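Ticket #4471: structure output looks truncated?

Reporter: J.K.
Steps to reproduce: submitted the chain below (332 residues) through the standard prediction queue, then opened the result file.
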Amino acid sequence: MAWPFRRVFRVCWWLLCTATFCALPLTIWEFKNQGWSPHYQAWFIGGIFVILTTPIAVYEVAIHTEYYTRPRLQRHVIRILWMVPIYSLDAWLALRFKDARAYLDPVREIYEAYVIYNFYAYLMNYLEDELGLVDEHLAKKAPTGHIWPFNHCLTPWRMGQEYIWETKKGVTSYVIIRPLCTALALITSQFGVYSEGSWRPNNSYPYLAMATNLSQMWALYCLVMFYHAFKDELQPIRPLSKFLCIKAVVFLTFWQGLSLNILVAVGAIKVNEQFTTYTAADVAEGLQDFLICIEMFLAALAHAYAFPPRVRRGCQQQRGKQRCVGCVLRLT
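Returned output as attached by the reporter:
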């Protein structure tokens, strides 16, 4: 991507953002005067943020393919960067076509598990490139105890192969459990025993939500332990900003949706069903999708900062686009 084109692209994008945010209050005011329903207002505004979000992610991916100097790292980064447009587009379509949400949300949920795997693989590949045998390097370090409150109920992991294995197992368990819970939700919904937001004991939703939540928290804890053991070695790639981006997109969006469903259960979100075909659960799901459309715009900016395209290691720029695409499409 030629240097002048990049500058023109950035200027055009900033002008588009400025014009959009200046016109957005007037657009909302006009919607109110025209009597548009909240559903269509949310869908239109969400679409604006999707249009602003997608070019950021595509631009970052394009720059990574141009400066494809470290394939073992950048193929995982590119997969992570695609998370933002996938999330935003999925949420926007689900916001408009609520009956298709049952088939759209699994795409997002499965990809988020794939992103967690790629983030862990990214960190491991960097350490292998820099240190060689990671477990042998770790075995020479002072023992790292568990973080409170797990230090009261778990025995410390031995530094070395066991430590690496335990963190990898914790992350991989979420990568397996998340798609499995999604598949079980689809299956049980066909039998009428799954209703998102319903906490009845004969409904599968609370059990699947609990399993997903526990798996997420344990995977998050394992990532924290991994960072705690290698924070000095990972410092050149600014791991904290990357970790916060992954945590915000994957984990906080899940807990956000769970909180909205709890608000429905306690009656904080309710509708008068005599005047609308939407239920309180539909409103909560629509609000979740609308918030994701907006949040992904911020996430795209954060990813652009956390995953810079130029990975410096004394390598010359490579322009092998086909080689890059092949590496990205590989599962490992």
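Triage note (M.O.): checked the attachment and the full token line is present. The two ends are 27 Å apart (CA to CA).
Status: closed, working as intended.
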